[in-house]
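Long-time lurker. I teach an intro course on protein structure, and each term I like to show students one example going from raw sequence to a predicted 3D structure in token notation. This year I'd like something fresh instead of my usual example. Would anyone be willing to generate the tokens for the chain below so I can use it in lecture? Attribution to the forum is fine with me.
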Amino acid sequence: MPNISAMKDPTAYLTPEHISQMIKSEPSLRNKLIIRMLFRSGMRVSELCNIQLDGILWDEHCILILWMKRRRKEGQPP
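-- Reply from a regular --
Happy to contribute to a lecture. Here you go:
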């Protein structure tokens, strides 16, 4: 896995291969799901942290995300 702090261009994006390596190397299922949600959905860490249990619509396979500007966004997990 690349050393992110040693990257010359801090705005460079991680490739899908790097993301797969991160997920495979993580032993915790919780952390694997966090990595997957962040990179597949494009949500911010703060948006992920603010997901409420009642914002998960199980029957509709949908998660309500509260944006930083207090707007709601619906999205289906990848």
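Some talking points for your students: The longest helix spans residues 29-41. Helices lie at 16-25, 29-41, 45-49.
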